[in-house]
Amino acid sequence: MGSSNVQRPRQVASIIPDGIGQAARMRMTPTVLGLLLSLSLPALAQEPTPLELSKVPQQGKTPQDFVPSGWKIEDTVRGDLDKNGSEDVVLQLVEAGPDSDSEGAAIEHARALLVLLTDGATLRRAGASNQVLYCTTCAGTLSTPGAVGQVKLQKGVLLVEQNSGSREMTHSLLRFRFEPKDKRFLLIGEDIEHVDRATGSIDKTSTNLLTGQRISEKLQFDEKKNKNVPLSTKKEKVPVKKVFLEDVNISRY
């Protein structure tokens, strides 16, 4: 699913504050959008350097044992992912270094995701990706250097939720589950929204990658009702094939 590098939708630094809300609530007027875009600063041309997964050990005693030189832990999530009663660890890594240069321009830093399963007193690497997370400035005006909370655990399922773009925004929610037979994390679901925040139009697709069931919806934000109104819904069956964490490239969405 694509190259090992996460492509950048737009080369601009983040200027939209955290907590602006989900895709369905992120509509903005053309005037405000124009002002935000005019104030955005171009990011440095230097590309972020993806994590060399070969440098990540297969096992260790502590989460820090899995962090290569030049990287640091940006966020840590814990929970039981393989249903053995032990607390497993998910690490969101980021390249070490300052967020901006002396002139205030954003410096790009790559991100990576590591999933570590607990086996007694040992942590074992069960999943690793250098392309499922946006770099610190790769999501356009919605980039969030220092972001936490985009990786979550829910009922044994690993959730990766991200936003990217500016006026035209993409909201993605990817679901992964540990498969004991493969001893890997399988992509089991995708919820993707493409939103025009100036017009309020939304194209939403939800796919169950275990059954192949897909639901596609077109919605329109209604200002009077202050909610999204469905315009059309389509249900279809799509081919099912195994896609693992290491195969997923966020730039394809």
Keywords:
12 strands, mainly beta, 253 residues, five-stranded antiparallel β-sheet, globular, seven-stranded antiparallel β-sheet
Q: How does this model look, in words?
A:
This protein is mostly beta strands. 4% of the residues lie in helices and 41% in strands. The chain has one domain. It contains one helix and twelve strands. The longest helix is centred in the N-terminal third of the chain and has 10 residues, at 30-39. It is globular and about 55 Å long.
> How would you describe the shape?
globular
User: How many distinct folded domains?
Assistant: 1
Please identify the structural class as seen in this structure.
mainly beta
Strand ordering within the main sheet: 6-7-8-9-10-11-12
Gyration radius over CA = 19 Å
Largest sheet data: 7 strands, antiparallel
Number of helices: 1
Low-confidence stretches: 9-21, 38-45
What is the CA–CA distance across the termini? 11 Å
Helix proportion: under 10%
Name the average pLDDT.
Answer: 86
**DSSP E strands, number:** 12
Summarize the model shown:
The chain has one helix and twelve strands; from the N terminus they run H-E-E-E-E-E-E-E-E-E-E-E-E. The protein is mainly β and 253 residues long.
